[in-house]
Amino acid sequence: MKNETSSTTGQAATSKLIITFCSVLLLAAVGLAGCNLLTKSPLPSKEETPTVTTAPGQVITPSVSPTSSPLPPVSSAITLTLWTTEAFSPEDDDSGQVLAQQWQAFQTAHPNVTIEYILKKPYGKGGILDFLSTARTAAPTVLPDLVILDTLELDEAAEAGLIQPLDGLVSNELQQDLFPFARHSFDGQLMGLQFEADIEHLIYNTNKIKSPPMTWREVLSDSVAYIFPAGGKGGLVNDAFLIQYLAVGGRLLDEGGKPALDKDALLEVLQFYQDGLEAGAIPPSVLEFEDLDDCWVVYVSAQAAMSNVNSAKYLADRGLLKNTSFAPIPTRDGNIATLSQGGALAIVTEDLARQTIVAQFIEWLLEPENSANWNLAAGYLPTRQAAFDHLGTEDKYFAFAQRQLENVYPRPIASAYEKVGRALQRAVQDVLEGKASPQEAVEAVITAVGQ
């Protein structure tokens, strides 16, 4: 996420330019007397929203997807409010301009609809989820129609009744075209649609490795170093371990959200870690890496031949890399496996009429061409399969990424996972530090989670 912005600072916010658009030809066609506005509200209120026109000479041409079907008109004027963050707002950068064009194109198709956005922090106190929770009780009239939430927060928002089911609102065509991980359900109801993805995969030095390893056996038989985060993030085990564990058929929680670990799967992954350490393929320094950024620094300094990386980092900085290629994370049997994180769209308003318009807006943003264009500009991966048709075939990375997205495992986000994640991290540390055998570490995990 980019730098956080609080919309409660009215004086600072009103000093910013707010993107508005006006098409003279369209006004003549529909006989309107003024412009549709794409506005930014400096306060969490739907009243007295100040607007400022774009600078003279600034022209943004709405991009209407040629494959889009006509949307039903709105009979009366309506303002939809979106709570978002700097990362997903129509500000003056490349991805913001693309998003602004798409928002305005939606308003062009709906002459009586205005999209108003309010910027908030993404997490923590004053973040979107926090504001949703407090405003629901203290000031329900300021609640938005639509929010963008981290997928990790969707369950909490759904459980608290802060967001509304999408079943019956978004089309089956859209739902079926989304990669399965992008359809987020809670208690059997569709609660959010992930619109951008950041996944973990392998990069390797082509001067040191002719062909990347696909299996653990190949990792262990080579003499080059393979690094990944093993130091834990916030005390929880890293995704690198979870990917390996899920790839061998392990599970973390049962349907009731209680710990349900597979002892054999745990033992296999921990044994791989120990074997890699003894073979020199996995350096002990992996315990110093809390996240993928730590690994990146080591890889770009040519201290490791292979490293896990996240797709957003790779897309942003691959122009700086030489003699580097990409591949799936090596797993026990060579099965492709990864995890995803990203932002999701969720409906807040309980008004059925407003829900219908918001759902149309969601459909518009997730049109294949729109999804492809914004994600390309923002440096993320689309979550619609059809969007990859618009990314072309010249860049081989996107074909690779699409295959990875087809093999994303569901991320554990239940509250009970914290205990599991901490126990798993302790096992990883004990094995890599030589304090416990893989078997001893597994038994300690089972005891710690009370399974």
Number of strands: 12
The residue ranges in which pLDDT falls below 50 over 5 or more consecutive positions are 1-39, 41-70
Helix content: 25-40%
Q: Rg from C-alpha positions?
A: 24 Å
- Write out the strand line-up for the largest beta sheet, numbering strands in chain order: 1-3-2-4-12-6-5
The assembly state of the depicted protein chains is: single chain
Helix/strand structural class: alpha/beta
Question: What characteristics describe this protein?
Answer:
451 residues; alpha/beta; seven-stranded mixed beta sheet; five-stranded mixed beta sheet; 16 helices; 12 strands; disordered N terminus
Give a written overview of the molecule.
By secondary structure, this protein is α/β, with parallel strands linked by helices. The protein has 16 helices and 12 strands. The strands form 2 sheets. It has a 7-stranded mixed beta sheet with strand order 1-3-2-4-12-6-5. The longest helix has 17 residues. The N terminus is likely disordered.
